Amino acid sequence: MLIAAAAASSAVASNEVVAMWTRIYRSAETLERRHEVALAMVEQDEPLLAPLFVEALSWLVADERSHTALTKRQPYNRMLTLVITELGELRAVEAAPVVMQVVEFTEDDVVRAAAVAALGRMGAQEVAPDLAVLLRNLNFESAGRQGAREQRQLKERLARETVVALGRLRQVVGFEQAFFASIGWYSRDSGVAKQAQLAMNKMVSDPSPLFEDMIRSNADFDVKLAALEAQDNSPAPDAGKVTAAVAALEQGLIHQPSNSTEEVTLSRLRNRAAEMIINYGEGDELAIADLKRAIYIDYDINERLAEITALRVIGTDAAITVLTEYLRYQNQRQLEGIGPRDYRTIRATLRALGESGSQIGGEAITMVEFSGWTPAVEQAAAEALQMLDGAGR
Question: Residue 2: its pLDDT value, please?
């Protein structure tokens, strides 16, 4: 009985406090006076005052056109920021529609950043699509178009608060724009990229389908590469990483570069894909056909070495057959006097065939001795045959 009576007494007291502040706030006739009252209300740390802060925000939004002059706008924005920030602290999600209105109508990025942050703290999931659009528009900006340093920093602050809010809302609709924020124009010091990565990890447990779609559908080769790298660094399961790698390898083969920069990017895309198959793709035969095409591209030695290793890691008869055919092809070219630019690819192929333990490559390895190779290549062939002997040749 005593506990119930105390609770009832406390409720009555709280209601009286709310009624008192409501009277005080409504009696304030000027913006400056209402700002003073709002500051005092914040100090009360009273959740039951949330409806009064909602009322205050609604009045501010409705009265916005009365404060367009600079002398009036500054105190108006201070009041707006104070009320919105407190609504966020109070988790007053019922205020989300009005707060989103502020994001849309105000041109002050400080106020917008405060409003976006409040929406995230409220957990206002219904505004996630709107915040994703806001972030998309910010991502389309560039450091060169932002003007003064202070203006760029304000845009970066707004972008950072937006990705943080999207991370708190945990809605997949924000994932793609968070990714573009992670690779966007923002400076390292802004923290946008770091917060965007954290936000993506909160939005989905397995980003594999989303990254694979970006790799396949985005026309920008740099974006394809960035999506593959992000997938490699994500908490996705190994199977998802391999699937993305296979998609990237395919994209790196079907597109033709129009300049040297694109040629380098596509090579890096294929190389990273091969490295991911090495790290995660043992036994995955989906990549064999594309790896077969890739090892005949005479561009980057490191790329081809990774592709040869990937075939060895897959290790199936089909993969070993591809390596065997590649060695036969190189043996024939060597006999014709058309040797490779770099013999490391031949030695890597021999080592891969030897380590496989498969007898499929035995004949092609033996032919090395009769194809006019250098002593170093012939020694690599002898070592490969020894490995096959040790495997039961």
Answer: 34
Q: Quick one: 66 and 12 in the same domain?
A: yes
Tell me which DSSP letter residue 173 carries.
G
Cα-based distances in Å from 175 to 132, 162, 169, 309: 8, 12, 11, 33
Which residue type does 199 have? A
Is the pLDDT at 164 greater than 80? The verdict is yes
φ and ψ of 103, to 5 deg: -55, -40
Between helix 50-62 and helix 96-105 the angle, nearest 10°, is 30
Number of domains in the chain: 4
29 and 13 part of one domain: yes
Assess whether 211 and 266 both reside in one domain. Answer: yes
pLDDT tens-digit series, residues 334-393: 999 998 888 999 999 999 999 999 999 999 999 999 999 999 999 999 999 999 988 664
Which tokens is 175 given?
């994932």
Asked whether residue 98 is domain-assigned, the answer is yes
DSSP 8-state secondary structure symbol assigned to residue 134:
H
- Tell me whether residue 228 is in a domain: yes
The model's pTM: 0.86
Residues 60 and 175 in one domain: no
Q: 3-state class of 312 per DSSP?
A: helix
CA 209/CA 215 separation, integer angstroms: 10
Q: Report the distance separating Cα 204 and Cα 158, nearest Å.
A: 23
Q: Is the pLDDT of residue 225 over 90?
A: yes
Q: Do 385 and 320 share a structural domain?
A: yes
Out of 103, 122, 141, a domain closes at 122
Domain that holds residue 41: 1-122
What is the token pair recorded at 189?
A: 């010091």
pLDDT at 143 over 70: no
- Residue 291 included in any domain: no
User: What is the rounded distance in angstroms from the CA atom of residue 336 to the CA atom of residue 347?
Assistant: 19
Residue 279: CB atoms within 10 Å: 15
pLDDT, tens digit, for every residue of 234-254? 999 999 999 999 999 999 999
The whole-angstrom separation of Cα 291 and Cα 196 is 33
DSSP reduced 3-state for 218: coil
> Residue 300 domain-assigned?
no
